[in-house]
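Form 7-S
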Amino acid sequence: MAEYLASIFGTEKDKVNCSFYFKIGACRHGDRCSRLHNKPTFSQPVFYNQFPPSVTLTAPLLTFFVGAVSDVEMQEHYDEFFEEVFTEMEEKYGEVEEMNVCDNLGDHLVGNVYVKFRREEDAEKAVMDLNNRWFNGQPIHSELSPVTDFREACCRQYEMGECTRGGFCNFMHLKPISRELRRELYGRRRKRHRSRSRSRERRSRSKDRRRDRERRRSRDRERSGRF
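Output:
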């Protein structure tokens, strides 16, 4: 029985725990949901709510908020926001593995930002700090997210351009950043990893050289003792 309950935990067969909250870290029913929302006590991803909706809305609604803008201008505006948040997260809290912004319109997903840190302690530090912050005149709500795989949280139909529910889909519609910005932000991480790898290799080679010198000295002392 215990094995069966463990196998269905967080799935649609689970009648106790909310599968939507488990998959995407948000539920359209909120506190009124009939199933449990098990909030993690430690996690790499952090969920932020109530960033300015105008950043993540689709083109027609964005026009309503900020006036007529072209697709290029809208992408530039979004890229600036994404880079600002991504850079601040890394500089203040720690290395970011992945950051995603929802393009949904439903109340439980609009304006949601998910940041996956490399270390769990960095995520905990970010949550504590960000809950005392405001953005664009609105308080930021942040919490540790149960999301472990963003591929499972995303709408596959949306990725193929076939989602019929539009912005009110219950699964994540992630707004992409430009390829140039992606290369810049995530390229820095690869460079850091290569730098760390080279540094570890240098330290390893240095240790090997020290061991070789010690062995030679030991052999020399042994030979000196014989003659």
